[in-house]
Amino acid sequence: MFGLSKKQPIAEHEATGEIERVYYEIKQSLRVTGVNLNFRTWAAYGEFLPLVWDVMRPNVETWAFESAADRLRSDAVRSVAELGPPAVRSHVSLGESQSFQIRAALDLYHYVNPKLLVFSSAVLLLLQGEEVGRATTQEADRLPRGVPPTMYSMEMESEQPDDEHLMELYRDIKNSLSLRSINSDYRTLALWPDYLSAAWQALKPLVQTPMHQDAANQLRETALTLARGLPYPVSLDLQAVKDAGAEIEEVVEITESFVQLLPGLILNMARLQLDWREVAELEESPFPAPSPQFEKEGVS
């Protein structure tokens, strides 16, 4: 079950001290407008998040990490492409502004979720005592930090909305996906409740199908392989995890749940994207980073 922790995730506006510092660096290094649920959950465990972030950050800021996420995103799109568009748009009356914002929100999560899977997979391997990364200079070039200027702000509806229909929709999503906390993706789409309702009705019948589960399993295995192949070898001192105030068994269980959930979430967001963009476009990053060659040559 995703989000097994009984601890309350730390929201961005609640962050102080080292957590606030790490939240800022996450947004700059991952090139994203907000802090996703996995980081907010880890932040509730003493100094565990600063510890694991500082270990992983050198790899996160490389072209190899970006390329790994690009690979997962492309694989996910190919997996759902044969299903065709879910036709959610035809069931919801949306104005031009609403359509623009929903498309931008989907681009945000289509971009960041594969990164979260690579990161969470690496953290799981580290917690299991495995060294992540290999000594190589291949794709170790650093990416430029900073949020892409056209990326949608990671705004979200409350996890406890006043709207009873929306609350019931949250409950259905959590029960169907075995979630303890509702994901950032669904909370953002909840800003347009009619769209989220129609989207979930399109997604729900598919999430338990063998095809969906097989595709999710393949993404999960690919992510673990890609995490092992990151350019900088790093390891995690499990005693340091305990000293940081985290129970190892609990953070392992939580991290396993992230790795279990994220592939399906990536597939779901890719499927919704088929209503808005062509497959070839979706296989590419919505916010491509400058390539190492361009950076070296000074080409913008």
Calculate Rg over CA atoms.
19 Å
Helix and strand succession?
HHHHHHHHHHHHH
In oligomeric terms, what are we looking at? single chain
Structural class: mainly alpha
What percentage of amino acids are in beta strands?
Answer: under 5%
Average pLDDT reading: 93
What gross morphology would you assign? globular
Keywords: Hydrolase
GO molecular function: 2-haloacid dehalogenase (configuration-inverting) activity
Protein name: 2-haloacid dehalogenase, configuration-inverting
EC number: 3.8.1.10
Keywords, separated by commas or semicolons:
300 residues, mainly alpha, 2-haloacid dehalogenase, configuration-inverting, 2-haloacid dehalogenase (configuration-inverting) activity, 2-haloacid_dehalogenase_DehI, EC 3.8.1.10, hydrolase
Structure, described:
With 300 residues, the protein is mainly alpha-helical. The chain has one domain (12-287). The protein is built from 13 helices and no strands. Helix 5 packs across helix 9 (210-228) and helix 5 (96-127) packs antiparallel against helix 11. The model is unreliable at 294-300 (pLDDT under 50). Its EC number is 3.8.1.10. This is 2-haloacid dehalogenase, configuration-inverting. InterPro entries: 2-haloacid_dehalogenase_DehI, AhpD-like. Pfam families: DehI. Keywords: Hydrolase.
Topology:
Elements: H1 17-30, H2 37-42, H3 48-60, H4 63-81, H5 96-127, H6 164-177, H7 184-189, H8 193-203, H9 210-228, H10 238-243, H11 248-273, H12 279-282, H13 292-297
